[in-house]
Specification:
Elements: E1 10-20, E2 26-36, E3 41-51, E4 55-68, E5 71-76, E6 81-85, E7 91-98, E8 101-108, E9 115-123, E10 126-136
Antiparallel strand pairs: 1-2, 1-10, 2-3, 3-4, 4-5, 5-6, 7-8, 8-9, 9-10
Length: 139
Amino acid sequence: MLLALGDFEGVWRLERRIIDALGPDAVFTGTAGFTRDTEGLILHEAGRLELTGQGGFQAERRYLWRQAGAMIAVLFADGRDFHRFDPGQGLTTADHWCDPDTYKVRYDFAGWPVWQAEWRVTGPRKDYVMHSVYRRDPL
């Protein structure tokens, strides 16, 4: 499957489950909107995060997605590098070191247009798995 940056443009329903060995588990339900800017796409995730046994709150975050040859470069909202992945693979991985923590992601595009991202985060005070499923919003 040959995916490119533009294939992600639009609104996706986002369901995320966070299994945290050190704290409460959580579920996020919302949207992931990819909108075009002059250099690529802006990803804006917005929705509700429910912490097991603790209630919930509105949550959001932004990233920048840029075409980098055959790869997609994901940047933090302030432009710092986060990670890169190959969207042309059915399964692809990447990692990010944020001292002292390690972030490893596995993207799964095999069921496109449904796709998934699974993050495994470990460090002295972190130990969780975050599994996200993206589905086109039928609007």
